Amino acid sequence: MTQIKFVIFLSFTIHSPWFLYSMKPVLQYPCVPSDFGIIYREVSFKTVDGLTLKGWFYPAQDTAGIANEMIGRVMVVPDSLKSPIREYESSTGGRPTIIICDGDGGNMSFSIFYAYHYFTKGYNVFTFDWRGFGQSDPWNIDEDKLCCAEFLIDYNSAIDFVKSQPEVDPERIGLMGFSTGAYLSFAMIASRNDISAYIGRALITDFKDLLKNLQKVIPDRKLVAPEKYPEKLLPIKAAGKVKTPVFLIVGQKDNRTPVWMSEKVYKKLKGPKELWIVQGAEHGGAEGPEMITYPEFFVKTLSFFDKYLTESYPLLFINHGGNMKKLKIRWQRLVSEQETCPRCGGTESELEKAVSILKKSLAPLGIEVVLEKRKLSISEFKKDPLQSNRIWINERPIEEYIKADVGQSPCCDVCGPNECRTIETDETVYETVPAEVIIRAGLIAASQLFRL
């Protein structure tokens, strides 16, 4: 799905090689959420050691009034294209809230793209700047350190602040961190018992492993671990005691925090856990997991948050003002005397399931999923049995998206002596097309809608 990544530079700038394991604070915000018509409020909160940090609180909202077409494509919005500032509104009652944690570079403006994919799905989202970053209070940042141990103070203060907000259900807080932000977020679930879900992309084991590996990757840098960082909070030390559900994501080609680091931590986890090794992905930047799999990354992470933060919140009404792109799924099958074959009946159930998930996942991206079903008569079927149980997505056969081969096998009494359609992908032959295959093809097709 690499065809979309070049248009989404808003999100990958913060995870570009310039930032990777090198503290590079950016003090000015190149954009703010209101530039895109996003409802939010600027907040300030105190740390226990007396500093003032800045944050942005995004209430759950639909996409009406948001310049959806610019999210992820434009970093600095010209005045002529800025959306009207919208009055702050929030939903009634406490909602589940996701805190997206900055890494070691940039500031929270670089996370607008990520926040968008969650606050348009019924979640509140909170982002904040570390001391010395953005418009938070100044701090002496040593760019040769992996991070500052004081960031743990900042993070705890941010969580406490979020839990006190009237829009937030304090018992349903999720954390999401990238790279440096991943292990800082892991320290939170290792030291607190009030976090309900954690997602970390590119997690380390400990500083010793990381520094040894980085010395090979960037031999000209002499990075050092932060003083006073509690060793017991490093992932490999803390994993065995963590009870919070954990979802680890790592690029298969990540040479900074290699797959083996996530695997070692994953093996030690005792609670609910998932691991996604993204084939072909690197640590971050344009080849990071979220870029080369877009929008699958957000489908999977939303599914994880839905599972552990809420199963009951309805999808917000999405209104794109007539600018929706369409993902058309067309399916045809034999129907003879109001009956169809078992494999077609099974595919219909799987198709309905897949379309429901795709609708929920793609609506915030401005994509409307449309399902069209067509019946084949017995005479049409006999002319070419392989035309039954066929799926097209945007007028292309599903097998083209997933590199599948078409075959045939004996079926049932409804189909008679005719052999019916099968597809083979990843060395597996399917008679009934499963939902996960349809979803995978649908996401690839969706990504192609954003080609420039």
Which percent range fits the helix content?
Answer: 25-40%
What's the story with the biggest beta sheet? 8 strands, mixed
Number of domains: 2
Total number of β-strand segments?
17
Strand content: 15-25%
- In angstroms, what is the radius of gyration? 24 Å
Ranges where pLDDT stays below 50 over 5 or more residues in a row are 1-19, 312-322
Shape: globular
Distance between the termini: 14 Å
Figure out the total of helices. 13
How is the CATH topology of the largest domain named? Answer: Rossmann fold
Quickly name the level 1 CATH class of the largest domain.
Alpha Beta
The CATH architecture category of the largest domain equals 3-Layer(aba) Sandwich
Strands of the biggest beta sheet: in what spatial order?
2-3-6-4-7-8-9-10
Find the CATH superfamily of the largest domain. Alpha/Beta hydrolase fold, catalytic domain
The helix-and-strand class reads alpha/beta
Question: How much is the average pLDDT?
Answer: 87
Q: What is the string of helix and strand elements?
A: HEEEEEHEHEHEHHEHEHHEHEHEEHEEEH
Throw out a few tags for this protein.
single chain; 452 residues; alpha/beta; Rossmann fold; Glutaredoxin; 2 domains; 8-stranded mixed sheet; 13 helices; 17 strands; 22% strand; disordered N terminus
